[in-house]
Amino acid sequence: QVQLVESGGGLVQAGGSLRLSCVVSGRTFRSYAMDWFRQAPGKEREFVAGRTRSGGSTYYADSVKGRFTISRDNAKNTEYLQMNSLKPEDTAVYSCKISALGNDYWGQGTQVTVSS
Fold first, then answer.
1. How far apart are CA 112 and CA 34, in angstroms?
2. Measured CA angle at 101 (ends 24, 7), to 5 deg
């Protein structure tokens, strides 16, 4: 069984920063791809950022490129999403997902609210 737990969300003013964490526990994998998604009220879930299994490549939605950065700490089994220059339109529930051995595993999400 795999558990993903996000944290780090909260209320921040426009222009501020937050760092989200996603701790992966339970069954371990040699490697996995990892993505961050978000879902705003009344909208469909959208891709935000991700990396390949090796971690050699990262990719971002155009809406966050240059402002968000994805990273990982292997020793802590933790994935991060650093979010800078936040905008009100970044308000959403952010979730992490890992993909390994043909399966996807999701966290429960963390709320990010950006006030104008």
1. 19
2. 20
pLDDT tens for each residue of 75-116: 999 999 999 999 999 999 999 999 988 999 999 999 999 999
Is a pLDDT exceeding 80 seen at residue 33? yes
CA angle (39, 31, 18) in 5-degree steps:
35
Tell me, what amino acid is at 12? V
Q: What is the DSSP string of 47-81?
A: EEEEE-TTSS-EEE-TTTTTTEEEEEEGGGTEEEE
Q: What are phi and psi of 51, to 5 degrees?
A: -145, 160
**What distance in Å separates the CA atoms of residue 46 and residue 69, rounded to the nearest whole number?**
16
